[in-house]
């Protein structure tokens, strides 16, 4: 099939990052994630797949006939797409992270989930940077972050 880049070997770091993102969605311990979570998984990795990209992925991985997808299948798909590429827009990455972590759409996420994401995924922040952003995003010692507070905090990030 034309249009695909040649398959690349993912680096150990990319594999580790993919495994970490995969494990955020893999709840049952069966080594598979729900097919519907593929888009969110790719967003965790810094991709911004269009609906057409996701449709192609579902077709390529035959997800319409199965409800789940294995780590190896996701890894192969990413390798066929030329590996993991990151935009270097930290602001956008943080907002995507919020949406991914806010599974129920409540407009808030736990501080611990957010801290974990900031220091382990995408363009990793140092613990100091993460703590500063968290401090600017939380109010009155709450253990959660609200979206609107995060937006304000991110707007004041040093570029």
From TrEMBL:
GO annotation, cellular component aspect: myosin II complex
Domain called EF-hand: residue spans: 13-48, 89-124
InterPro entries: CALM/Myosin/TropC-like (IPR050230), EF-hand-dom_pair (IPR011992), EF_Hand_1_Ca_BS (IPR018247), EF_hand_dom (IPR002048)
Gene3D superfamilies in UniProt: EF-hand
CDD domains: EFh (cd00051)
One GO MF term attached to the UniProt entry: calcium ion binding
Keywords (A to Z) from UniProt: Calcium, Repeat
UniProt cross-references to SMART domains, sorted A to Z: EFh
Protein name according to UniProt: EF-hand domain-containing protein
